[in-house]
Amino acid sequence: AGWFRRLLHKPKPSSVERSRAAGIEAASSPSSSSLAESAGYSPSTSLTRSVRPSATSTLDINASGSARWAKSYDVCICHSEVDLELVEELVSYLEGQPESFRCFLQLRDAVPGRAVVTELCDAVQNSHCWVMLITPGFLRDPWCKYQMHQALAEAPLANGRTIPVLKDLERKDYPRELRNLYYIYMALKENCFRQIRDTVVRYLQELCRSGTE
Fold first, then answer.
1. What angle separates helix 84-95 from helix 189-210, to the nearest 10 degrees?
2. For residue 130, what is the DSSP state?
3. Angle between helices 116-125 and 142-154 (to 10 degrees)
4. Where are the beta strands (DSSP E) in the chain?
5. pLDDT tens digit string along 169-208?
6. What is the third-level CATH fold of 76-211?
7. What is the dihedral of CA 62, 65, 66, 68, to 10 degrees?
8. Distances (CA, A) of 55 to 139, 165, 202
9. Which of 55, 33, 56 is nearest to 45 (CA)?
10. Alpha carbon distance 32, 26 (integer Å)
């Protein structure tokens, strides 16, 4: 009876003591975040892993002695004469990038007096990538088709070297010879130029890693 009477008269813990006990319990019990960390990830690290690294790093392609310098040009632009103004903007954009791309522009870089066939073939063979600006003018120009076939013969497996750019044409007008390649559709010029630049950088990075073409 005596111990039961003492139990009834035992003072209740104060609010301070209750909060202190709750803090000790919370610290000793594993939370969902601590369980996640023990499993090898946390909200912050999972977010970091979900962000893809940029594919346009210039770490290797400007290094001296890299495979990039085995050819005279990084990019050959294949286009019709009616699209020259747009092509000049593209060349100015690419050559003004931090990578300082070396572009072959027929009007500027072709050697006067040489045969057109020779110049077109040399431009393809001496360039790492070929941008095909496919417009209604391109489809009407036999020299554009000739250069396109030369590029496909040079790299039949493509592997990123041939970069088709479709402008002012419907999907059904896309050349059959290029149907196995994804193309860039030029809606916004700035976005298209950036996609071309990123594609060239990606190819040159792979080229520098492999050391061959």
1. 50
2. E
3. 40
4. 73-78, 103-104, 127-134, 162-166, 184-185
5. 999 999 999 999 999 999 999 999 999 999 999 999 999 8
6. Rossmann fold (3.40.50)
7. 80
8. 32, 20, 6
9. 33
10. 12
Quick one: tokens of 167? 């402008």
List C-alpha distances in Å: 11 to 6, 8, 15: 10, 9, 12
pLDDT tens-digit series, residues 126-147:
999 999 999 999 999 999 999 9
Would you place residue 65 in the very low, low, confident or very high pLDDT band (cuts 50, 70, 90)? confident
Amino acid in position 42 = S
CA 116 to chain centre: 34
| Four-CA torsion 55, 187, 120, 161, nearest 10 degrees | 20
Q: For residue 77, what are the β-bridge partners?
A: 131
Residue 195 has which token pair? Answer: 């996609």
Structure tokens of 98? 């931090």
Cα gap 62→189, rounded to integer Å: 26
SS3 97: coil
Place of tokens 């360039």: 127
Specify the residue for token string 């946390």: 42
CB 154 within 8 A of CB 124: yes
Distance (Å) of CA 202 to CA 17, 59, 129, 210: 63, 11, 11, 13
Residue with tokens 């009407």: 140
CA–CA gap between residue 152 and residue 130 (Å, rounded)? 10
Question: Are 144 and 78 in contact, with CB atoms under 8 Å apart?
Answer: yes
